[in-house]
Design brief:
β1, α2 and β2 form a beta-alpha-beta unit. By secondary structure, the chain is an alpha/beta fold.
């Protein structure tokens, strides 16, 4: 079975593909006075290097450089479950030289963090959605259970012997875990972490029982076998890269479908012409066959859509998250 692991070489391949595409001559985008070649475009990623939003942010930076001849750099400003980097973009000048490459968290952050005193639909400009990635539910290999139905039964019988790792408050995995518990009626306590890697490390060590997070991040460990066992993928159909993992519906939880999604934002007030130029660049990038193929081999599906479509999707996700959090009386921490 083909391994899926987004390492630095995968990021560099994506970037190289973007540069090659630009050198071959993509459809023209009106440049105007932005970006100026003597200024640097900063793409802020509010999470550590190596994750999907980091890879997609680096891809955007490479495409900006290849297309416009400007300098574009990625800055990983981590902390506060993504809040530090997000606030840095909100507070930046709306001139097109500071961008946010983030994920699902950005849209729901104020619902889960008391310190997130901003409105993502008011204080940021949606530039584009870039990609989606299905989630997968994994269990520590130290547990004796083999299937999802056994897990649910055992957890409901004695929830004190179980816990659910949360890679980041407000992440797609966090909301998916809440929905999992709501649907199953299990009372499993949640343990928040500062990223997927430390949560996965504890899963493999048996310190925590369960984790729901993007498939691309967990599949390499699943494929190694032993230390983490996949219970189901939260998608409508099985992945061609992991055909042995059942969907959550097949495993016994019908209707349970969750994706993480990724996007680009700009500070409020960024000129619409710059937003349109960036959106067109993202769409071109995600429609490039070479880049799309490389993304899909890491279980990330590229998205190419206009600003209005991205805004509508994000609005629907905010509504969905709000309803889900309200259903369990979740209180920001």
């Amino acid at each position: 079975m083909k391994r899926c692991n987004m390492k630095r070489r995968d990021i560099l391949k994506l970037a190289g593909g973007a540069a090659a595409y630009a050198s071959l001559g993509a459809p023209a985008i009106a440049q105007g006075v932005w970006p100026q070649k003597d200024k640097t475009v900063k793409v802020i990623v509010p999470f550590p290097p190596g994750a999907a939003n980091d890879a997609l942010g680096r891809l955007l930076a490479e495409r900006l450089q290849a297309r416009f001849g400007c300098t574009a750099v990625v800055e990983n400003r981590v902390g506060g479950a993504g809040l530090i980097g997000t606030k840095a973009v909100i507070q930046a000048e709306p001139d097109g030289y500071t961008l946010l490459a983030s994920a699902f968290n950005t849209a729901v952050m104020p619902m889960v963090l008391k310190a997130a005193d901003f409105d993502p639909e008011v204080d940021l400009e949606v530039v584009a959605r870039t990609a989606v990635a299905p989630l997968v539910c994994v269990m520590s290999g130290s547990r004796p259970e083999k299937a999802l139905a056994e897990v649910i039964a055992a957890a409901k019988a004695d929830p004190t012997k179980w816990n659910f790792a949360i890679s980041s408050l407000g992440s797609a995995g966090h909301l998916a875990t809440i929905d999992f518990l709501r649907r199953t009626g299990a009372k499993i306590p949640m343990v928040p972490y500062r990223g997927t890697q430390p949560a996965l490390t504890d899963i493999m060590a048996g310190a925590v029982s369960l984790l729901i997070d993007p498939t691309f991040a967990l599949l390499p460990v699943i494929q190694e076998g032993g230390k983490a066992r996949a219970l189901g993928i939260a998608a409508a159909q099985r992945s061609v890269l992991a055909p042995n993992i059942p969907t959550m519906a097949e495993a016994g939880l019908p209707g349970f479908e969750f994706n993480s999604w990724y996007g680009v934002w700009a500070p409020k007030g960024t000129p619409k012409a710059i937003q349109a130029t960036l959106n067109a660049l993202v769409q071109e990038t995600m429609r490039d066959a070479t880049i799309a193929k490389r993304l899909t081999t890491t279980l990330i599906e590229p998205v190419a859509e206009g600003i209005d479509a991205s805004k509508a999707f994000i609005r629907s996700e905010i509504v969905r998250a709000g309803e889900l959090l309200k259903s369990v009386n979740f209180q920001p921490t």
